[in-house]
Amino acid sequence: RAPGSVVVPWHGWVLRAVLLLGLWFRLRLYGEIPADMGFDLASKFHDALSIVRGRYSIFFPMRLGREGFFFYSAALVGKLTSMSKATLHLTSGLIGGATIVAVYQMARELFGIRTGLLAAFLLAVNRWHIVLSRSGFRACTMPLFTAWSLYALLRALRTRRPLDWGLAGVAIGAGAYSYRSFLFVPLALGAGLI
After folding, report:
1. How many angstroms separate the Cα of 89 from the Cα of each of 49, 124, 159, 176?
2. Confidence category of residue 193, pLDDT binned at 50, 70, 90
3. Helix (H/G/I), strand (E/B), else coil: 121
4. Facing residues of 67 across strands?
5. Nearest CA to 105 among 116, 97, 90?
6. Exposed / middle / buried, residue 43 (Cβ in 10 Å: 0-12, 13-18, 19+)
7. pTM of the full predicted structure?
């Protein structure tokens, strides 16, 4: 420990290890498994490609309408790598990794560091979440924004700081751009508060 050095606490190292494990499950051979493209992924690829080409939209009306967070995320990943079928799988895998961190924060806020680490580990190796994170479907955003919204709301209730209330509002509002069924999350959070 040299003067002025940054010290990472033990739980920071454990969380990094859990995140690396989760990313390994979600990103290993992401361009090959699953191998199919299907109609859904083709239409999602088209929406992300339209963003890369400069056609921006808040709501994507094709196929009964879809929210744009996943498409903008895929467009960003596509700009950093290259747009291909694998871009959608890489994007959903990275969102799955972010969900591991969000679940850690939520569980830590509720029950402490050890429970947060356990929750992150269980999600990192959870089969349904691994499959969802590798799928390339925008439904992978739902667990991320649900965990983030609950964490932000719990933190705001604990601290009562205006900034934390604002972050809770941002989390819940941003979730509305993730996946259509997220619209039930604010109702569930409101019912939980009551």
Report:
1. 14, 17, 37, 22
2. confident
3. helix
4. 59
5. 116
6. middle
7. 0.91
- Exposure of 13 by Cβ count < 10 A (0-12 exposed, 13-18 middle, 19+ buried)? exposed
**pLDDT tier at 43, thresholds 50, 70, 90:** confident
Do residues 67 and 12 lie in contact, with contact meaning Cβ atoms separated by under 8 Å?
no
Number of neighbours of residue 72 by Cβ within 10 angstroms: 18
Mean pLDDT for 28-51 is 83
Cis peptide before 143 (omega within 30 of 0): no
Looking at the predicted structure, is the pLDDT value of residue 63 above 80? no
Contacts of 22 (CB under 8 A, 6+ apart): 96, 97, 100, 120, 123, 124, 125
60: three-class secondary structure by DSSP: strand
* Nearest residue to 59 (alpha-carbon basis) of 172, 132, 138: 138
**The dihedral formed by the CA atoms of 36, 42, 96 and 175, expressed in degrees to the nearest 10:** -150
pLDDT at residue 38, rounded to an integer: 66
pLDDT tens digits along 64-110: 778 999 999 999 999 999 898 899 999 999 999 999 999 999 999 99
Cβ-contact 48, 88 below 8 angstroms: yes
